[in-house]
Amino acid sequence: MKLRLKILLLAAVPLLVAVAAITVAVYVQGLQLAQREKQVVESAWLASKENELRHYVSLAYSAVAPLQAAGDDEASRQQALELLAQMEFGHDGYFFVYDLNGKNLMHPRQPELVGQDLWNLRDTRGQAVIQNLLTAARRGGQQGEVVHYLWEKPSTHLTVEKLGYVVVLDRWGWMLGTGIYLDDVEQALVSIDAAAQANIRNMFAWVAGIAAVSILGVAACGLALNISDHRQSDAKLRLMAQQLVRSQEDERARLSRELHDGISQVLVSIKLSLEAARERLRQSLPEQPQALAHIDRPLGGALDRLNSAVGEVRRISHNLRPTLLDDLGLPAALEHLGREFAIPSADGAPPLAVRLRTAGRPVQLPDAYATALFRVTQEALTNVMRHAGATRADMTLAYSAHDLRLTISDDGRGFDYAEVQQDPRRGIGLRNMRERMTALSGNLSFHTNAQGTTLQAWLPLPAPAAPTATTQA
Questions:
Q1: Least packed by Cβ within 10 Å: which of 142, 172, 361, 472?
Q2: Contact by Cβ (8 Å): 178, 165
């Protein structure tokens, strides 16, 4: 695993763990908060409903109190029952009356129960409903008491939980009560639960969004760091390549000077010494032509080989570092290089007709730029002569305000560029040319077919140095 990936994981994994832990904690706290809110709402709602029922019963008690005070006759009781039957509130709010023995005296929504003894009536849970109501009424007296029980809801005909409030009318021996059905409360609590779950889902969405943005931020920082590292690495590699090329050229220049000033001079002095010795022999043995010919023949062969050695040393010295490149510039060095390839070589390779055309206004190039283009040309012409079977090569050196372009075209048989790139034993010269261009922020491109090959080297020209301001005294 790469170091950058490890750093990215070390940054992302703790973030994800922290976000997950926060999410779980918030989720648990949210559930607990929703449960407490539900309990608070339920308690407050039930308390408000109890107060509301107490108020309704108080109104009903006040309505029948004058009739109860007027007398204990049957007419007053019947009038009180009719009055209570007409008192309603809400959609399913009504009053009911039982005697203290469990007999139903009035029920406006279920008139079929009137007159029935419901003392033993039990709900679906087995609870004695009327007995519990009467017990609570006796316990509360005229103040009343709250009772929870199951009863059929008139509007839906479903048995649901009901919150009742009952009081005792002592003079008539009645139990007066009313109630509200709690399914509406349960629906409201379900709505609260749904709202709480929706809030929790929204919280999860926000947390997920924040986590995603954080991960993208970490990834973006890692990508920026990676790109920055790559750029720094590329810059360092280019600088290293430039330093390596510069050191190679410096070493070539040193070797060229050593060959020219050292070995070449030694060979020339030996040649002069041999020529002087041969001349003295000719002068000392004028009357012995046979002996002179016997000695002069090997001396002449030695002198010829010395001449060849001096020429080879000079050629090697020139190839290592052409003096024209330093003295007259790149165009003159390229023209001289072309003339050298037009001379038949010792290995029998046919000469190559090279023509140079310059476009634009030549400018003074840094040593690294001129050397790189000269070496590219040298390598390209060498490949053309050795492998392409070409008879001519055209070179174009085009200057512009911001870049320099060198194009070399030949009429050879071309080559398979992809195959050369895949074979590690071939294409070393092409890779060297490309690396030289890349080290100077340039590029190298090829176009090859059966009719020939075109090479194009491009280099951006460095910005001219700003003129230094001079101060006159």
A1: 472
A2: yes
Tell me the residue type at 157: H
- Stated pTM of the model: 0.46
Distance CA 3, CA 10 (A): 10
Report the alpha-carbon distance of residue 463 to residue 214 in Å, rounded. 42
**What ranges in 118-182 are assigned the alpha helix state H?**
129-140
Question: Tokens standing for 428?
Answer: 């070393």
User: Encoding tokens for residue 241?
Assistant: 């390549």
pLDDT digits (tens, 9 = 90+) for 352-402: 889 999 998 888 888 888 888 888 898 888 888 888 888 889 999 999 888
Residue 96 CA to residue 299 CA, distance in Å, equals 152
| Superfamily of 322-460 according to CATH | Histidine kinase-like ATPase, C-terminal domain (3.30.565.10)
Tell which residue, 323, 322, 407, has the closest CA to residue 358.
Answer: 407
With contact defined as beta carbons under 8 Å apart, do 410 and 389 qualify? no
Unique residue bearing structure tokens 């070493």:
251
Domain ranges of the chain: 3-181, 322-460
DSSP, collapsed to helix, strand or coil, labels residue 473 as coil
469 pLDDT higher than 50: no
Beta bridge partners of 147: 164
